[in-house]
Amino acid sequence: xxxxxxxxxxxxxxxxxxxxxxxxxxxxxxxxxxxxxxxxxxxxxxxxxxxxxxxxxxxxxxxxxxxxxxxxxxxxxxxxxxxxxxxxx
Length: 89
Prior knowledge:
Layout: E1 3-5, H1 13-23, E2 28-34, E3 37-42, E4 61-65, H2 68-77, E5 83-84
Parallel strand pairs: 3-5
Antiparallel strand pairs: 1-4, 2-3, 2-4
């Protein structure tokens, strides 16, 4: 099942993303940093950890799934150019 966490439509998105990612550490996430900037990561990727101050991880929309093929299909269906993290993928 795919989930979307987006603070622009849900003020609790950050908390919900953190809870979901803690329960699904082997899952995958597309981090949407802009209209043409989407990158797939593993949830446990170091790019989402180790910030010195509390960070709202849902400031960028997160499209998440335990199945990476589901996210790839979703991106393809929307004609998105999808990049892949060089650290975790």
